[in-house]
Design goal:
protease, alpha/beta, Aminopeptidase i, Domain 2, aminopeptidase, M18 family aminopeptidase, 9-stranded mixed beta sheet, metal-binding, about 25% strand, metallopeptidase activity, single chain, Aminopeptidase
């Protein structure tokens, strides 16, 4: 399959996925086009060997399953997350300033790098719940992909210390300007107009919304030879995309699971987050129908534990690449390079779930796929982030490792990764999906 075609699909996915709800919608669209059927968690399931299906929760998390053609004895699990740090609108977002502007009250979602948000052309996206004229309640996606807001910087003439590390206050200094001379009612009116243009809602009433601001600058190839990919939300939509590509390119013989959870950036403690029961619920229902169940009660529990312990999880979340201007922020022996291959993430304090056994498996997969592999460990005098890997391993008990594509500017409004690394990690995960023996 063409590497250039894959990159084009990636850029399209990033452009169409300004929020987790949009990302899941686009992933579901591709899955259905490939023959996966959608199941509803509130309905009974009838499953058969070799079947392919997916299920969503909160419309922002998704689990896609490829059942093995013969015997449910092990699953090859790929994990990622759909959310990214940013600015979310508060419920009563409209606020009129003394300067004569309708501005938007925002709340920080996750650990966003704030400075890059200034002077950007910001769009608005998310989901809106409304009541139609006939009384029906409905949730709809909103994607205003043109600039409708901006957060202007203060001129250096008015703040001579601006380049000396000035702290930013998200409450008082980062309210986007939205409409000149607007009243508070204008926000609701505009939302209704945009929804009507996108969904033909007619006479409807907005009951509530979950909306986020996003950078309307499209994803792009960067560099003289196009070596780089620059985009918002590479952390971690890049892993969602690569996991989906690997699932769809696999040979279909083995049991494969792709899970993309919401809320990783805020701790994963939700019904659809990695710390919640979503993945476990889906796997238990599969095992109850297709697993080697020896009877009721204890037999089902034993069968499920055997399945989980025979399975493996590769948690995919981007890694910190060696920054050319800040090389001192890396351990000298653990500075991954862009386009140097996927990165195994290791932490002695279990901020990453990798151990020597799961790392050895991944190194062997990369060898099989002809892919270079790198390793990251943080400096001993610096803190370490985490991923869904340790959380999923804790909740399920599945042997897990953490890997990722190296990137710069993690949690910025625009991040950078290597174009070649997309192909490298995809090939390694396809080898994982097709691997007959995991031990």
């Amino acid at each position: 399959m063409s590497q250039e075609a894959r990159i084009e699909r990636l850029l399209d996915f990033l452009q169409r996925s300004p929020t987790p709800w949009h990302a899941v919608s686009v992933m579901a669209e591709r899955l259905e086009a490939a023959g996966f059927r959608r199941l509803d968690e509130s309905h009974p399931w009838q499953l058969a060997a070799g079947e392919r299906f997916y299920v969503t929760r909160n419309d922002s998390s998704i689990v896609a399953i490829q059942l093995p053609r013969e015997g449910l004895d092990a699953l090859r699990m790929i994990g990622a997350h759909t959310d990214s740090p940013g600015l979310r609108l508060k419920p009563n977002a409209a606020q009129t300033s003394m300067a004569g502007w309708l501005q938007l009250g925002v709340e920080l979602y996750g650990g966003a790098l704030l400075a890059p948000w200034f002077d950007r052309d910001l769009g608005l996206a998310g989901r809106v719940h409304l009541r139609r004229a006939d009384g029906r309640l409905e949730g709809l996606l909103l994607h205003v992909d043109r600039p409708v807001a901006t957060i202007p910087s203060l001129a250096i003439h008015l703040d001579r210390e601006a380049n000396n590390g000035r702290a930013l206050n998200a409450q008082t200094q980062m309210a986007p300007v939205f409409l000149q001379g607007g009243e508070k009612a204008d926000l609701t009116r505009l939302l209704l107009e945009w929804l009507d243009a996108q969904h033909d809602i007619g006479d409807a009433e907005i009951l509530d919304f979950e909306l986020a601001l996003f950078d309307t600058q499209p994803p792009a190839r960067v560099g003289v030879r196009g070596e780089l990919i620059a985009s918002a939300r590479l952390d971690n939509l890049l892993s969602c995309f690569i996991g989906l590509e690997a699932l769809l390119e696999s040979d279909g013989a083995q049991g494969v699971v792709l899970v993309s959870n919401d809320h990783e950036e805020v701790g994963s403690a939700s019904a659809c987050g990695a710390q919640g029961p979503f993945l476990g619920d889906v796997l238990r229902r599969i095992n109850a129908q297709l697993g080697d169940v020896g009877g009721a009660g204890e037999g089902k529990d034993e069968s499920f534990i055997r399945l989980i312990q025979a399975s493996r999880m590769i948690s995919c979340d981007n890694a910190h690449a060696l920054h050319p201007n800040f090389t001192d922020k890396h351990d000298a022996a653990h500075g991954p390079a862009l386009n140097g291959g996927p990165v195994i993430k290791v932490n002695a304090n279990q901020r990453y779930a990798t151990n020597s056994a799961t790392s050895a498996l991944f190194r062997d997969l990369c060898h099989e796929a002809g892919v270079p592999v790198q390793v990251f460990a943080t400096r001993a005098d610096m803190g370490c982030g985490s991923t869904i890997g340790p959380i999923t391993a804790t909740e399920l008990g599945v042997p897990t490792l953490d890997v990722g594509v190296p990137q710069w500017a993690m949690h910025s409004i625009r991040e950078t990764a290597g174009a070649q690394d997309v192909e490298y990690l995809t090939r390694a995960l396809v080898a994982f999906c097709n691997r007959a023996e995991l031990a």
